[in-house]
Structures are given as structure tokens and as C-alpha cells.
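seq:
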Amino acid sequence: MTEPTPSSVPDHPPADGAPVDRPRRRWIGRIAGGVVAATAIAVASYGSITSASAGDDIHASMTIIAPAAAGGGWDGVARELQQAQKANGLVNNVQVVNMPGAGGTIALGNVSVLNGQAGNLLVGGTGLLAATVQFDSAATLDDVTPLAVMVEEYDVIVVPADSPYESLDDLVQAWKQDPRALPWTGGGSFDQLVVAELALAAGIAPADMTYISSDGGGEAIQALLNGTARAAAGGYPDNIDQIESGRLRALALVAADPIEGIDIPTAVDQGYQVGLTNWRMLAAPSGLDDEQVDGLTDLVLDSIATPEWADARARYHWTERVITGDELDAFLADERERIERLYEEMGL
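struct:
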């Protein structure tokens, strides 16, 4: 469920620890090419957004924009909201538009120019906020109207079942002896941020860690099982089947507090202050008046109070966390500062 973005960390850093510029240039080239392609898709999608949501009645017509391809975490949020709104008559006509590219910032840029058009909702979250920092995007969350954080998803630290590391502390102590010699993997940039936060909590410089980015949770699990990586951070929903089957050993849940129904000790309870979560939010375009913002916020709250949304939370292993209003503004500011610091520590 993690929204993947390319990693700038080379698979095999040099033994002398010298900086490597060539892989980073290749990464930037891949991003640039992806942005061009995604922009072409976005232009076509933009027309469908404006035509579908030209009216002012948010209960008559709504477009939910998933800033990623179909099948990912943001797409899942969009389609579950669509189902909840349709099934309960909250909105008469709801469509989902997928607009992938640059970690979600292509969609963010397009929504940022829909000034005053209330019939649009943009799905986002930790990954989108991180992408605005990582890619230094022209559009940020300041250019839209955040409405609500709705749920969060937790990462889990895992190793292969035959790993010598029986606990998080076992893993960290081995990692501290030679940070570059213990490769990590994960499904994307969010997982990399989690590993960086664990490194800081353990007294390891994140710039010294070896992180092999995988294209999604399934590829990360394979990297663990075939020995390419020795530890991983990944979404709990992506790893739960492998943990329950005994192929992976869960060492820690990355959450501030223990979660009911998940029998995995948290990193915090084991002495490591790591609690970055993969939260999901909705935003609207800028230029809305207070009445429009209140109406959209109420629509979101009504949508996530439905039985259909409750069922989706259970299926996706989402934990409800609702943040709105001034509390949301403060939360987003704190999260941006936290993520900026992690990227700086990684030297990115």
C-alpha cells in the first residue's frame, strides 16, 4: 500500500564510502522523463476533471482524484470513498480520475489551479507531502485546501524467518557495527523515511545507510527472501500474509502506541522513538469560501462514517485517525518539518 517513488540511494555503495553522483543523475533523468509522460496524461485528465465538476453543488457531482495509477493505496482510498458516497446517496454522481506522476505532485499541480471549483477532492497523505519536499515541487499543500486526515497505516520492520536477528535491538546493534554493510529495502520513499528515522533513533547517520528501493511491497519482500536485503520496512497490510505464514519475522510495528489486534511490539516500546505513519488525507482546490470548506469537510466526515468505509478500513488494515480544522494545519506543518529533516539527514 505504500506509494512508491524512485530511490536515490545506489544499490551497492563504494567500499570507501565516497559519494556517488552517477546513480543520482540517472535517478534525476528517470524522474524528468516520468514527469514529461505524466504531464501528458495529466493534461487529458485535467479536461475530464473540469468538465465533470463544473457545477457548484457538491452533492450532485464530485470528482475524486487519485494522484497515482490504479491499484495503489491512493487509488484504493479514492474508490472506497466513491463507493461510500454512492451507496449512501451522499453524492449523486461520483467519478475517480487517476493522475499519476512524480510522487503525486503532477495531480497536486493540476488541482492547485482549479481555483474555487469545489466539486473536486484530491487524495494525498504522507507520501504526497514527502514528494513535495523530495522533488521541490512548484505546488505544495499550501496551494490547495486540506480538509481532513482520515486514516493511517503503519509500517512494520521485518527480517527473513531464518535471520539471526530475533529482536529489533539485535538488528540495530548489528547495523551500528557497519551501517553500509547491512542493506535495507522497502516499497518506496515513505519506507525509506521510516528507516532513516530508525537510524536517527539508533544513533546512525542516515546518510551512511544502504537502502535498496523496490517497486512496491511485493518486490521488497522478494529482496528480503532472496538475500539482496537483510531487513525491510514496509506497510503492515503488505507484509501480514508473509508474517502469518512464517516466511518473515516481524521485529517492530512503527506506531506511537500499541495497536489493538496487531500483536507486534512497537519500536517505541523497544526504546526507539520511531513513529512516522502513512496517513491518508483529502484536500480540495484553493479559493473556496468558508461555507464551501465546511460543506466539503462535512461531506468527508459523513463519507467516513458509513458502513462501507468501515468495511474498507478493516480490509485494508487502516486505523481511523480523523484530523480537521486548525489541528490539521498544525499537524501538516509539523509533518513537513519532520520530513524535511529526514531528507536533510539522508543528504537528499
